[in-house]
Amino acid sequence: MVSVCLIAWSPTPTKIDAAVLSVRFAPFTKSPEALAVGLRPGPLLQPRALAAEPLVSRALAGRHSFKAEEEDVLPVLTAEGWLVLVGLDADDEDEGACRWRRIGGALFGELADSGIVRLDVALDLPVQALAEIAFGMSLRSWRAPSLYRSKPDPDEVWTLAEAVFVTEDPASAQSCFDRLAGLAAATALARDLVVAPGNRLTPASFITFLAPLVALGVSITEVKPDELGLLEAVGQGSAIPARLLVLSWQGGQKGAPPMLFVGKGITFDSGGLDIKDEEDMDEMKGDMAGAAAVAGALYAIAARRAAANVVGLLALAENMPSGRAMRPGDVVRSFSGLSVEILDTDAEGRLALADALAYGAKIYQPALMVDLATLTGAVEVTLGRHLAGLFSADDDLAEKLLAAGEDEDEGLWRLPLTDHYDEALKSAIADLRNCQWEEGPDALHAARFLQHFVPAGLPWAHLDIAGVSLLEEDGPLAKEGPTGFGVRLLDRLVARYLER
Amino acid sequence: MKISFAKADLPGEGALVVGVFEGRVLTSCAERIDQLTDGQLQRALASGRFTGKRDQTLLLPAPSGLAVQRLLLVGFGKQEKLDSLAAEALGGTILAQLQNAGDQQITVLLDDHEDAPCGGGAGLAASMALGASLRAYRFDKYRTKEKDEDKPSVRKMVFALDRHAKAKSRFSLLEKVVAGVTLTRDLASEPANVIYPESLAAYAKALDEDGIQVEVLGEKQMRKLGMGALLGVGQGSERESRLVVMRWSGAKDAAAAPVAFVGKGVTFDSGGISIKPAAGMEDMKWDMGGAAVVIGLMKALAQRKAKVNAVGVIGLVENMPSGTAQRPGDVVTSMSGQTIEVINTDAEGRLVLADALWYTQERFKPKAMVDLATLTGAIIISLGDHYAGLFANDDLLAEQLTKAGKAVGEQLWRLPLDDPYDKQIKSDIADMKNVGGREGGSITAAMFLKRFVKDSKWAHLDIAGVTWAKKDGPVTPKGATGFGVRLLDRLVADAYED
């Protein structure tokens, strides 16, 4: 039997470093340091912008690219202080929250280093829209925690620290924002995990990074992989053994089958004996972005005391070459009983996940199962950096995920999952092999590989997030670096389909 | 190989084929044979692993009580799952099993039930015949010393059933499409010293025998039209580039807007100055696969007198490095007026298509436009050899294509055509560049093409992964598949004919 030991955990909740931007809602105050006002294309001025009409007209008289379209931001220095023109789209027909978030993100991105410390946002919009703009600003304000420097670098700190949203109804705006603030903190947690160096965030230390979850009432258990042969094999080259972390939030009906989220958590992936090229190998500290997303989602769900049962499984291992590392050609018995020939030690994520999926399905008898993994380079070739690959045999679950992705600006694109690819996974000596050497659709092969470890009939989806876990340049809701992709998506999935 | 349909009589020679459903359930004609052979079938079934699962076979040589040399039992699988695709695969499997056995004739004895899912006995026979004729394809023009025993022995395949006339009339339509597929496969298989822009244009020109109007544009005319993108690709080659326009007017209203098909025809793609690695470069003779499909499709449409106005446009060039070749960094002006910075001379297919697409929509104002191209290596890493990539600016057209693909077993998988990817092809000095990097490589290629599509309903099929098969499939022998001909013929039949 798999031995399960409960970690004696003394919760020392640490404040998540990334709540960099402080957000408040308040009635209008006179002569703010910087005032953001809204314009629509035309440009039509919102009421509060109208008050500054002469200034706005003068600012707009110059030649520049500000067209008052969504995400256009133009800071103007006036005698009274900064006036920040914020473009809003022509109509508010698009009810989606994402457009407001992107406006908030653009606003923060433009002013982050401007020298402005406090921004008063006087946009004449409904409180929900203000809260979403504030959320977008919060998401965009994340940056890597300074704890890896000996002292903070002043050039690496945003100047913008406070956003005060002008509203007649601060209380209801605040309550709209409270839920989103939890989600922003959850995203920040996931991003913190992804940037954490491989010598700090290890399979053993991972649990210490999850203290904020414990503080919220998430229980955390560690499972030693006695029978998780594949997971163990992935970690066997490292001095730090592999393990599973089980994060559990029981906010729903007692005994109701949970939703199970599984995250690939390779805390560092050197490739093992099939070692990777040196170029960009440092990015492989982020090969646990799936696990980070699951941890973040659990944080978000617990932060809003969701009436749902959700279990997160983090398959943690470090993939290293060494005298005891797994070798190409090794055959390993999986938790499910299937034997796997390891052709390529760098196709390790699917091994770790296979055991986690089989284990999770058996032990937790979930209502549905979703895994997230930075699994393949092939998915980047297919979908680039804008969409994650979605694989599912369950059309209903796939539709729900696609909808949640669209709602949250975390886009998915469905890719094929069929037994056609079994031929590529045929081993000469074992039940399965983990990949083929010939060039081919490796993301599809990987997904089909995983499907062999999922009980038939259990709704399951696999998200290959290798292309979307990191941004190469600043985006609307995150600066260059980790995105925290998956946190908002999973949170929305739970909110929409599990909480009633 | 000749296909024919006949009464359900027992043949006096060759190989006889009967079907067995899953669970060792004999078809009626298999029962008949069982009785004639004194229970030999039942005895054979009792002792072996053959259970009648689809595509299983069991060969019984010299069956007693029959005049034939061989009896082949074929697994038909579950009766309710025996649809037309399954029947095609069975036809292909039967042929593959027996074509080198030594017999000149194969006789497939079939029940004639009304209720088979593929349209009764006649439908079953016609689909099996289709599968067998597709599988029988060979390209042995250049074998001069093949021994007789290595060549297929089968000359004739007979499908024997009660309503053979009905089966024959069904097959006569399918046969026309086979002719198109065969032409496409031949053209893709021909080496690049035989097939070059001028000679491929001549093959297309030969379609006038089928009633297709063919025009061939030379470099001078293309230069006049301003096709700088296409001409740039061909400028390194000694061979002149060509643009071929094929028109089939089969609709009642001869003036009705046509449906257009545009094919990439790079008769050999060395990569140009951005030359490819040596290994596998010979495969680049079939980089005109898209053009070959358009030619085969036009033939199929004309042969079956499709009630549609269809236009086929193929851009034919050879991409070679030389003293006159296009250089990385060159900027070319396309027919649309848009300028393109050629970062990589090996991303040439999109340059050819850019002008061919623009020309097609300007001249014909088609109601729908579908292009086919062996465009990107990325599509092989994305979808392998099981699906072609489908990109479309119109959901209905995408659905029609997907449905047609499912019906004929030439499967498509839709991929995104979204604005965020467009950024990747921004150029520092021109309107766009011709490569967008490794990430989303097939998508950025499609986004490039999209810039040359105005308001036409348009779909792009990236067929680089499905044009050439590395191993035998049920209805496609190893080699050129002709993927696309049946798919687009079906699209026309389902959605664009009067």
Walk me through this protein's architecture:
The complex is a heterodimer of chains A (500) and B (498). With 500 residues, chain A is α/β, with parallel strands linked by helices. Chain A folds into two domains: 28-166, Leucine Aminopeptidase, subunit E, domain 1 (3-Layer(aba) Sandwich); 188-497, Aminopeptidase, CATH 3.40.630. Helices cover 30% and strands 21% of the residues of chain A. Chain A contains 13 helices and 21 strands. A nine-stranded mixed beta sheet of chain A has the order 1-9-10-12-11-15-19-16-17, with helices on both faces. The longest helix of chain A has 26 residues, at 170-195. Chain A starts with a strand and ends with a helix. Chain B has 498 residues and is of the alpha/beta class. Chain B has two domains: 2-162, Leucine Aminopeptidase, subunit E, domain 1; 178-496, Aminopeptidase (3-Layer(aba) Sandwich), CATH 3.40.630. Helix content of chain B is 34%, strand content 21%. Chain B has 14 helices and 20 strands. Chain B has helices at residues 28-36, 40-47, 84-98, 120-135, 164-189, 197-205, 219-225, 228-234, 289-303, 349-364, 378-383, 395-408, 441-450, 485-496; strands spanning 2-6, 15-21, 25-26, 57-61, 70-77, 105-109, 156-160, 213-217, 242-249, 259-269, 309-319, 331-333, 339-341, 368-373, 388-392, 412-414, 432-433, 458-462, 468-469, 479-480. Chain B has an eight-stranded mixed beta sheet with strand order 8-9-11-10-14-18-15-16, sandwiched between helices. In chain B, strands 1, 2, 3, 4, 5, 6 and 7 form a seven-stranded mixed beta sheet that branches. In chain B, helix 9 (289-303) links the parallel strand 10 (259-269) and strand 11. In chain B, helix 4 packs parallel to helix 5 (164-189) and helix 8 packs antiparallel against helix 10. In chain B, 56% of the residues are buried. Classes of the chains: A alpha/beta (500), B alpha/beta (498). At the A-B interface, helix 10 and helix 12 of A face helix 11 and helix 13 of B.
